[in-house]
Amino acid sequence: MQFFKVKTVEQTLALIDEKIEPAAKTEMRELKDALHYILAESITAKENVPGFDRSTVDGYAVRAKDTYGSSEAMPGFLTIAGEVKMGMAPEVAVTSGNAVYIPTGGMLPVGSDAVIMIEHCEDVAGLLNTYKQVAPGENVIRTGEDIKQGEVVLEAGTKLRPQELGALASLGITDVKVFSKLKVGYLSSGDEIVPFETQALEMGQIRDINGLTILGMAREWDVDVIYGGIVNDDFAEFQERSRILYEQVDCLIVSGGSSVGAKDYTTEVIQSLGEPGVFVHGVSVKPGKPTILAVANGKPVIGLPGHPASAMIIFRLFGERIIRRLQGEKIVSRPERIFAKMTKNIASAAGRSDYVRVRLEEKSGEWWAEPIIGKSGLITTLVKSDGIVEISSAKEGVLQGEYVPVIPTR
């Protein structure tokens, strides 16, 4: 196979969107246990929320026109005709010249069309002095103003955060159909890699950092993980261990062995797992050029660079998108970014996207990005950083004081 027919970052993201389909497995979950799951079907409201006109403040339900002209200097006067009790339908209507006390969330009495806040009026022995005029609909939520019966409340692919759970709870929904939680497998490769618990390293050995960092990132994206251990640079062993792990998971990640060395079998191993195989073999990006992406019989396979910092950046750029698409989440944008000013000039090669680790500092109400200088394989550059500055392939660097997009890493 020819090595490094590199793609741009934009081409790689487009190919991920084209080739990665949601995993087919779905399940019904109780709403209380569905946090961070992805909806597998759209949900339509079967009722209005709220189901009645209600007050948004403590005050008095009135006919708005009865308050017109009211002011501190010349208050209006209304007769208090009763009160609304929480959780009960009003027992009294509002007629011309009358007002009814109503608490926040109370049901608006018949005849009223607004609520005057308690701070803007005064009860004087049953006579309400109004010191401010209100408009029709003021301090009132109308029936169905929040959610209308028949409308699509949440679309398939929506991640259920606490606010989405609250919206569904307001409709009395107790169970939802969601995509089942993904299972991701990870395998490190290389004769030099040893378990991270190894205390005394022999010359040339490297502890397996990626087994913790990459799977830690995957856990942050709400997937289950399986650590497959370390495999030596032996093709038959590598292929067999990869096949065993591949059959247990929805997505396989392999770290190391993706460059051009004689013992780098990653591409061949990934290609042997199933069709159609590799669709990205090298990305025009620094760090992380030796990146492999594939689909084997419907399952994504990710080949990451061996250097820990490079692996983390690539996994943040492409692995997260693959996982989110695989778990059925609706993709609306690239990873979240904030904008900051650069503290110094940074050079970049045209035609290649560069990702520079930075420390963020707030000065005079603005974010500034201070580059952390270090080689791509240094994990401490990520430890010290708050984010990664993206320099697109169309640019030849950024200037001091220029606004740049930063992918947060904290």
Can I get a quick summary?
This protein has 410 residues and is α/β, with parallel strands linked by helices. It contains seven helices and 28 strands. α1 (9-19) packs parallel to α6 (308-326) and α4 (235-246) packs across α5.
Distance between the termini: 38 Å
pLDDT < 50 runs, ≥5 residues: 258-263
Question: What composes the largest sheet?
Answer: 6 strands, mixed
- Anisotropy-based shape: elongated
Rg of Cα set: 30 Å
Percent strand equals 25-35%
Order of strands side by side in the largest beta sheet?
Answer: 7-4-6-5-9-8
Which structural class should the secondary elements be placed in?
Answer: alpha/beta
Helical element count? 7
Mean pLDDT: 90
The residue fraction in helices comes out at: 10-25%
Please give the number of β-strands.
28
Describe the model:
With 410 residues, the protein is of the alpha/beta class. The chain is 18% helix and 31% strand. The chain has helices at 9-19, 162-170, 210-220, 235-246, 266-272, 308-326, 380-383; strands spanning 26-30, 43-44, 54-55, 59-62, 76-83, 98-102, 114-117, 121-124, 127-130, 140-141, 152-154, 175-179, 183-189, 193-194, 206-207, 224-231, 251-255, 276-281, 285-286, 292-296, 299-304, 338-342, 346-347, 353-363, 366-371, 387-391, 397-398, 403-408. The strands form eight sheets. Strands 7-4-6-5-9-8 form a six-stranded mixed beta sheet, with no helix packed on it. Helix 3 packs parallel to helix 6 (308-326) and helix 4 packs across helix 5. The longest helix is centred in the last third of the chain and has 19 residues, at 308-326. It is elongated, with a radius of gyration of 30 Å. Residues 258-263 have low confidence and may be disordered.
